[in-house]
Design goal:
The protein is built from 14 helices and 19 strands. It is of the alpha+beta class and about 500 residues long. Strands 5-4-8 form a 3-stranded antiparallel sheet. A hairpin with a 6-residue loop joins strand 1 (about 10-15) and strand 2. Helix 3 crosses helix 10 (about 345-375), helix 6 (about 220-240) packs antiparallel against helix 9 and helix 11 runs antiparallel to helix 12 (about 415-420).
């Protein structure tokens, strides 16, 4: 029985490179359209290439990092130990005195977050040193670095759980007890799919020690976006290359050939040569209006690429939507069934950020760095601190309004409300304290503002039948003060 031919369509064509104006043959086949490498290093390189090639993908991932690493604070029961943890966080990598490295825990977390989101794995190593706070010397990791994931190999020859061994590409780095490989959303039972037919074949699914780069699965959509962008660039190149179609003569006025004398000298140019000379002369002008003079039977047409193809963004619709979905950003279709980006759900985007920073970065810092520090300084430290991240300021307006209502009833802290509004609570508190300080004239900034607030009086009855003046701007008795009065409280006011 003859073998059934494999079903696959193939396109062969020539494509012009708008930069070099050269032509290359293309061979696009469904057999290779969705191929994925089985090597972790190649997958990491693929995602990094996508990150640097697609502006939208880069923007979304950068924003995820900016929103996620927005400030932290320690929480400890023994407040006397807080000063050390703040100083240690400040001194991380500062002792290197490097010309190109910013110190601090926030900078380290940025490195971790970026590597984790792009590659799924963060190889780290640290060195211990001295941290001096109020003449007390603490032992702690002071120099902490992150290595490229694609340079690190993992092995577990006997498949013993918890016995993975890490090695660097050129053996220049030794991973020991002062090292850690942080793997994102990975388990010992994970498997990896690869090959040329990921969607149909199961023979290429196998166990893997490496995590899947979180955004590797969206590579095909990013590649589609980049190919569509090349179509637009090629269209622009075509617009710059104008084709003139010139018809000389018709059935009633055939072109006239050139006339020569017996010596072969041209006495009269042909119609085509005359028009060509006029066109080339007009094109040679660098500025101003170009003019050519031809007989009435010369028809000149300018042929350009259809600009509607260039201005049509609908072709990006599917791949862009899939890219947004990969970040947990869901776009609701409008009533006209069009993507108008007026109703966007970002709750899943926020949850991805919180999951990454709380479940991985925070636990790494507390368990792998803070806990050993406490064990190394038993006479100075008594508890492992808890690292708290500032609230995300990506919440909806309805969420913020609900927080403000809870704050009014005393069921919400002002810190969480300020952070949800994108404000630094410590800055707000310090500003309020500054405004409460009395100046040389005995007045504070708050006093000046209060004196300038228009006052509304509200009459209330009292037990002795005398009216009570209240002086809040809304007419409610909340402890305001009318101009020319001293303290106004629930018992009334007195004239100065």
């Amino acid at each position: 029985m003859p073998k059934k031919p494999e079903q696959a369509f193939e396109i062969r064509a020539s494509q012009m490179d708008p930069l070099t104006l050269g032509y290359t043959d293309t061979n696009t086949s469904m057999k290779t359209q969705y191929s994925r490498p089985d090597d972790y290093k190649r997958r990491v390189e693929t995602v990094w290439n996508d990150y640097q090639a697609d502006p939208m993908f880069k923007f979304l991932l950068d924003r995820m990092i900016f929103f996620g690493i927005n400030g932290t604070r320690w929480q400890v029961k023994n407040e006397s130990e807080m000063e050390f943890w703040n100083e240690w966080a400040r001194q991380i990598n500062e002792q290197l005195n490097a010309i190109d490295i910013l110190g601090g825990l926030d900078e380290l977390q940025t490195w971790i977050f970026k590597s984790m989101m792009l590659t799924g794995m963060v190889p780290m190593k640290w060195e211990w040193g001295k941290v001096i706070v109020r003449k007390k010397t603490y032992n702690a990791p002071v120099n902490i670095t992150v290595f490229p994931s694609s340079k690190v190999s993992l092995k577990n020859e006997k498949s013993v759980w918890g016995k993975d061994v890490a090695s660097y590409e050129d053996d220049s780095v030794k991973f020991d007890k002062n090292s850690f490989i942080l793997r994102y959303f990975s388990s010992p039972a994970d498997m990896s799919a690869s090959g040329k037919k990921v969607s149909t074949s199961l023979s290429n699914v196998k166990p893997s020690l490496y995590p899947e780069p979180p955004f590797f699965s969206v590579h095909e959509d990013i590649e589609t976006r980049l190919q569509l962008r090349e179509i637009d660039r090629s269209t622009v190149a075509d617009l710059l290359s104008v084709l003139w179609h010139i018809s000389v003569g018709d059935k009633d006025h055939p072109p006239i050939g050139e006339k020569k004398n017996a010596a072969g000298n041209v006495l009269q140019k042909s119609s085509i040569d005359s028009v060509k000379e006029s066109m080339e002369g007009a094109a040679a002008k660098t500025a101003g209006t170009r003019s050519i003079y031809t007989p009435y039977y010369v028809d000149i047409k300018k042929i350009t690429t259809d600009t509607s193809v260039l201005l049509n963004y609908d072709k990006y619709f599917a791949s862009t939507l899939n890219l947004l979905y990969s970040f947990g950003i869901f776009v609701v279709m409008g009533q006209d069934s069009r993507l108008n980006f007026t109703d966007i759900n970002t709750q899943n985007f926020e949850q991805i950020i919180n999951f990454a920073r709380n479940y991985y970065i925070r636990r790494f810092i507390e368990n792998k760095l803070c806990a050993p520090i406490v064990r190394a300084n038993p006479s100075l430290l008594t508890e492992i601190p808890s690292l708290r991240y500032n609230q995300l300021n990506t919440q909806t307006e309805a969420f913020r309004t609900a927080l403000l209502e809870l704050l009014k009833t005393g069921r919400m802290s002002s810190r969480i409300v300020n952070e949800s509004l994108g404000l630094n609570n410590d800055y707000v508190v310090n500003d309020i304290r500054e405004e409460q300080k009395k100046g040389e004239d005995g007045e504070s900034i708050s006093d000046l503002f209060n004196a300038n607030v228009p006052v509304t009086f509200k009459q209330q009855s009292s037990t002795d039948g005398k009216p009570i003046e209240t002086s809040d701007t809304l007419g409610t008795n909340q402890g305001g003060k009318p101009a020319g009065k001293k303290d106004a409280d629930n018992q009334g006011t007195k004239e100065e």
